[in-house]
Write a structure and sequence with these properties.
22% of the residues lie in helices and 28% in strands. By secondary structure, the chain is an alpha+beta fold. A hairpin with a 5-residue loop joins β9 and β10. α1 runs parallel beside α4 (122-137).
Length: 263
């Protein structure tokens, strides 16, 4: 039991007292386990951003851990609190599309735990969330019932071209590294052993996959597979996103921005 973690992914911000109350309630219901923030800085109810962060982070925690998403908690026509499983982990989230965005159809044992009625209360959401987490930690799901949510899967931002592929931008991290909608397996299938070329404005083309940022001179571009397994383009000690004229904040308004891989 001591190896099990409870994580929170939210946009509440580190100074928000509601986050402290949520953590205290979780500790009271979960044998004193201190919750860990995956992040508390999700902005503007960004579900795509939330899904990527959740997908990337959960696997580093012990099997049996409980992962709570507190983003747009009353989103959807009928606000609900859901619980699902994947690879031995438990996920507690609103019925707002975040879970299928993160995991597609790979979730198991999806269940409805609670359906909220007006007037919606954040305190009630905290109480129900802590009660559900506590029941999981103690070995049960109380009266959670089987549930099927709308199949909302992260859009495929890639577009095949006669001489390569157009990759959408999935995420931009705090260093300005740009994560593409292409994972290592997909890259292997599409590029294989062929030579490839990623053109970057005002910089040299990228023609090899690096293991780390320091394999190229400072200020030079590279690509690598990040810890989540996605292809990332970056500059050594400089923000690639600035070179491309984008940021995480405006990414939702520039979906047409892509990175081309020629092969």
């Amino acid at each position: 039991m001591s190896n099990i973690a409870i994580t929170i992914l939210s946009g509440l911000g580190p100074g928000n007292p509601s986050l402290a109350v949520l953590k205290l309630m979780l500790m009271n219901h979960c044998n004193g386990i201190v919750p860990t923030d995956i992040t508390s800085t999700i902005k503007d109810y960004n579900l795509d951003n939330s899904a990527y962060v959740l997908q990337s982070a959960f696997g580093y925690f012990p099997v049996g851990s409980v992962h709570i998403t507190a983003v747009d908690i009353f989103g959807g026509s009928t606000p609900r609190l859901l619980v699902a499983q994947k690879d031995g982990h438990y996920f507690i989230a609103p019925d707002n599309g975040i879970l299928p965005l993160a995991f597609g159809g790979k979730l198991e044992n999806t269940r409805l735990f609670f359906e909220f009625a007006k007037p919606y209360s954040f305190n009630e959401w905290i109480n129900q969330c802590a009660l559900l987490a506590g029941s999981i930690i103690s070995g049960g799901l109380l009266q959670a019932t089987p549930f099927e949510f709308e199949k909302r899967i992260a859009p495929n931002l890639r577009r095949e071209l006669p001489d390569g592929i157009d990759c959408g931008i999935r995420y931009i991290d705090q260093y300005g590294n740009v994560v593409l909608d292409m994972d290592k397996d997909q890259f292997g299938l599409l590029v294989g052993g062929k030579s490839f070329n990623i053109r970057v404005p005002k910089a040299d083309d990228i023609t090899v996959v690096s293991n780390n940022y320091h394999e190229v001179p400072e200020g030079q571009p590279l690509c690598r597979f990040n810890d989540a397994g996605f292809l990332e383009i970056a500059l050594n000690h400089a923000p690639m996103a600035a070179l491309l004229g984008i940021s995480q904040e405006n990414l939702g308004t520039v979906r047409y921005r892509t990175v081309k891989i020629f092969f």
